[in-house]
Amino acid sequence: MSETSEPGADWQDLRHFAALAREGSLSAAARHLKVDHATVARRIAALETALGLKLVDRRARAYLLTAEGRRIAAIAERMETTAFELDRAARGSQTGLADPVTVSAPPTLAATLIAPRLAALYAAHPGIRVKLIGEKRSASLSRREADIAVRLNRPEEKSLVARRIGRLEFALFASPGYLESRAPADYGFIAYDDPMDQSPQQVWLRAFAQGRPVVLRASDLEVHREAAKSGVGIAALPRFFGESDPGLRRLETGGKGISREIWLAVHKDLRRAPVVRATLDFLVGCFEALR
Fold first, then answer.
1. pLDDT tens, residue by residue, 95-121
2. pLDDT tens, 169-224?
3. Whole-structure pTM over 0.85, yes or no?
């Protein structure tokens, strides 16, 4: 009688390969998995050895999937989806508050509206621990990159439950000295760099500038605010963020402003877990002033 053979592929190798296929490059997969790119390369080589298949063509600047690689990537993707589903099912059935809950939110909102209020959450629920990630991208709740997400766009995924919890109004700000020392025709502007170039607030800023120069590009709103305070130029900032700083003055725009909705999202498999429910209620309160 022959013995039953064990599967040849290691799940961790498959997971790294799925990340490469999804993210498109070694470096992007490494960033997503929070490892170095050499680890991703080693895992893929180990998977090829285990399966006896050539999964990638190794070029000087890229890894390209072979036909077999694309077939295995599709299988790995399905396996990964099932693994996350199993994980969410287990997490959603837990009744305690011991497991950390991960919250993803835009950096400025995480730093100014959520982090300063966490002590109140911990006082009300001593067992809760939060992992707060400030990031501009939309974390995948299906892949458990976060348990809860604060977003500036209405979530479209059918697997998510979403609630609008506020509105983020933008205005233009600069230092008083900057506005008093030059004519409007000489204004310069502070803008996002390329990844955020098509955001609604950036499009609005460019429309107001009407061809006047962008004197600084930066990825972070804290940098925008500090640069505007120091007299570098005019920045588009959330009103609560700019108006709370005495070193800035709001620039009149003739009533033409812009606002973005703030949404709270959670995967439907997790919404009834006590630790998630308590954190959702807390987050709703964090944005009460912006409703």
1. 666 678 999 999 999 999 999 999 999
2. 999 999 999 999 999 999 999 999 988 999 999 999 999 999 999 999 999 999 99
3. no
